[in-house]
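Hey, I'm writing a tutorial for new members on how sequence and structure tokens pair up, and I'd like a real worked example in the thread rather than a made-up one. If someone can provide the structure for the chain below, I'll link this post from the tutorial.
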Amino acid sequence: MAIQSRNKINVSFSMAGMSDIVFLLLIFFMITSTLIHPTALKLLLPQGSSQTAAKPLTTVSITRDLNYFIEDQQIDFNNLEAALREKIGNSEETYISLHADRTVPIEHVVKVMNIAKDNQYKLILATNPK
């Protein structure tokens, strides 16, 4: 009478569960990475202590080389006002975020502020926290 054990150890391993988890993690990270909107321009913003809760409709950036951008698209200053009108349309309570490098002369910032004032846009000057 041979005694046999009832619990036989199975040496095979199923990777199906592991591949499902990896696939779900991949989908999760792909979806969350598209929700993050990184700024493509590297600007050294001035420091400030106050913050606003308003959500800007678009951003205008001025680089240290005095290049103007609406979001990530470079634009000539002479076409900036028309491009902003086209981008914004007839929206009420329009907020624009202005990102200007700290080395940009103030006159270029004031030019963008004047465009916003003439079109009755509300302008938010972006800063780094202190």
